[in-house]
Amino acid sequence: MKIALLSLAMLGGQLVTPVSDRVPKLNVEATCKATVATDKAMGLDLAQSYDDCMRDEDAAQQQLASVWLANSDQIRNQCVGEATAGGSDSYVDLLTCMQMTDLAKSLAPATALRGASKNRNKK
Fold it and tell me: How many CB atoms lie within 10 A of CB 88?
């Protein structure tokens, strides 16, 4: 019984990794290598080079440093999860997630739309 609980606790610890106050270290080198290989295998005319991919990832990592602490732990955790899903780490994806969250926060609250809703006449 204790072993099962310990295993469950260890599994749970792996599912939720707390994000720190610093931008996480991501393995973007592997992602860039995989992207270049996929582009080559697909025979893309405008395939991205490894150097261009790494330059984009480095630039995104630098930009993240300025917005990282401006977001809550919840948003940082969500965005890190999205940016590392499937074992494909990307600072570009992490930055995009953060920017989209910032944009969503800055939009004015939606007006109460009624349209063809079943509840439109219940007020």
Answer: 15
How do residues 21-34 score in pLDDT, each as one tens digit? 889 999 999 999 99
Query: How would you class 108 by CB atoms within 10 Å of its CB: exposed for 0-12, middle for 13-18, buried for 19 or more?
Result: exposed
For the entire predicted model, the pTM comes to: 0.68
Average pLDDT over residues 9-13: 39
53 within a domain of the structure (yes/no): yes
Name the domain count of the chain. Answer: 1
Which residue range is the domain that position 81 belongs to? 27-104
Report which DSSP code applies to 114.
-
Is residue 22, in this structure, part of any structural domain at all? no
